[in-house]
Amino acid sequence: MAYLLGVDTGGTYTDAVILDEGTDQVLAFAKALTSRPNLAVGVGAAIDAVLADAGVNGAEIAMVSLSTTLATNALVEGQGGRIALVAIGFDETDLGRAGLTEALRGDPVIRLAGGHNHAGGEAAMLDLAALRVFLQEPDNGVTGFAVAASFATRNPAHEIAARDLIREATGKPVSCSHELSQALGGPKRALTAVLNARLIGMLDRLITACEMHLATLGIAARLMVVRGDGALVSADLAREKPIETILSGPAASIAGASWLSGETDALVSDIGGTTTDICLLRDGRPKIDPQGARVGPFRTMVEAVAMRTTGLGGDSEVHVIDGLGGGLWLGPRRVMPVSLAAHHHPELVHAALDRGLAQDIPATDGGQFVLPLWADMPTGLDARERTIADRLSAGPMRLGLAVQSRMENPALGRMIGRGLVILAGVTPSDASHALGLVDAWDAEAAEKALTLFARRRTGAGARVAESGQALARQIVDQLTVQTVNCLLEAGFAEDDLNWPEPAALARHPLSVAGLDRHQGVVRMQMSLGVPVIGLGASAATYYRAVGDRLGTRMVLPEHGGVANAIGAVVGQVRVHATGTVTSAGEGVFSVHLPDGPMTFADRNQALGALEGALRSQTEARARASGVEDIRFTVSRDIAEAEIENRRMFIEATLRVEASGRPRIAHDA
Fold it and tell me: Are 298 and 311 in contact (CB under 8 A)?
């Protein structure tokens, strides 16, 4: 008998599930709070609980697979380590494209002369002087480096030289753009490298936490990680390219949704603590985004499921809309629910809330708290950040005590962005506790925080809500409104008519009237034409109202709360590599390989050499992920032109994919 262990680490919960490989049955599932900064606590608690519930010994586990939303959440919330971008052969205009400025968030950029042309020839000599100067700085707070050179996919020599220098001087992780994508488009490749470098430390900590706990339980099975396209890769490969795990959790949830529900055509909506992820399931398979994964404001070169990710979840921050009309808005930032903060720090939270409720005019921080996430005092802080960190050295405190002037607000924002601290405040999870829909944390604290929040004033001077209970209902209703908008937008975007501006259409008055089933001189009716599969721990709490509003069947499968963990172990390993052959003239064919270009006089020899190199590359990566029975798929896209009645070769792109199920322990 062999058992499969799936683990999913989200922003709020870490889920674990045990599947019986022989019967395809879920034997047990468990949840534990995701623990920060020490992820090992939450991972260990979930694994221990599910093994105990299933009555399974660690030695009986044949394979372990991990999915996670940590990378996705980090990009949506603007979190991650401080990095430096080494830009080779780019000018200022290039660095302002593809969202690079926003992604860098003020982190340093070291511009170097160098780079190559479209044929792989050196455009300028590489000058590493500025890089050497930067690497000699004693404490710049940089946790990793991104290296991007112009046309590095045609010749990576300059990226490799910079990478080797950084590793020798610092020992810190380096992300080279040519190792993440073979597509042209330097700024977009640089963006992908920047995001990858920002995520390396975070994913490494998660994988290490999982490996360490598996070792303590005597689980010797191979650890796999779900990639953003739903494929499995080895933990070592995921460590090198954490950017490929953006949308890992959502991709696993799609596989889990199909496996659990049996539906082949549906919109899958997965609500977590931080995000709502929506994807169309057609003929049992999710669509792959041909333009690369988009998460939050960033369009990357990562191949992933065509997922629409929105900063809307059970732990989304609640905002009062400015202006006379008032109203609420949720997200995109995740905060710790007050009910959860009180679960961890009851004396602090209840004392602060009680003081606030005793005052006629509530404090401006309105029951918000700041919680430090560091194990050791962080480095690389500026003066204002250091002041806030010193105040928090004794532990969590009220926001109004942690930040004591308006000038310190940006400093706190930067610390939140770096994942050094987290805010606690009112969320939909608190509303659910106050309404009796959920009973996981401290409902009394949730009720107090909601009552305090309700006393805030709108632009018209009225209270936000009459009571904490009334506010809780408003928050849940607002979550329904925003979820409906997300699903309707996805419906317009995926519809065969190719509607323009799906986001505007989803919020158009005609769409709203259709959802209202308006009956007047004009009769209006609108609904989704496919069912919705609702996933996530809170889907059963919120999504029935969403299905009613959209006039469609809402499928809430059993074990839908751990669909990500289930999907993590039902997938296959798939690795691919892409390369190009170009021609500078008749009888000259350049093959652009990871180690540099090679030239051939014969077209077929060039194509054969590239295919052979890509096969070797994908085979090695597939075997490293435990696949023994490898299936290869080769696709060729050859561009030719007819000139004076002759076919002239211009360029060819080859893609080789190696796939198969990873070998599990009992087959050894």
Answer: no
Are the CB atoms for 484 and 543 separated by under 8 Å?
Answer: no
What's phi and psi for 415, nearest 5 deg?
-70, -35
> Is the C-alpha dihedral spanning 249, 252, 256, 258 positive or negative?
positive
- Note the pLDDT tens digit of each residue in 485-519: 999 999 999 998 989 999 999 999 999 999 999 99
CA pair distance 298, 434, nearest whole angstrom: 36
Render 364-419 in DSSP notation, one character per residue: TTTT-EEEE--SS--SS--HHHHHHHHHHTT--EEHHHH--SGGGHHHHHHHHHTT
Integer Cα distance of 601 and 584 in angstroms: 11
Q: Which amino acid is it at 348?
A: L
Residue 361 is classified by DSSP as: S
DSSP letter for 559, please: T
Q: How confident is the model at residue 350 (pLDDT cuts 50, 70, 90)?
A: very high
Looking at the DSSP bridge assignments, the partners of residue 319 are 329
Q: What integer is the mean pLDDT of 365-384? A: 87
* DSSP code of residue 270: E
Identify the bridge partners of residue 590 per DSSP, sorted by sequence position: 582, 599
Q: How many CB atoms lie within 10 A of CB 103?
A: 25
Residue 377 is encoded by which pair of tokens? 């005092």
- Edge-to-edge strand ranges of the sheet holding 83-88: 109-112, 83-88, 144-149, 174-176
Return the DSSP state at 661.
P
Euclidean distance between CA atoms 296 and 278, whole angstroms: 13
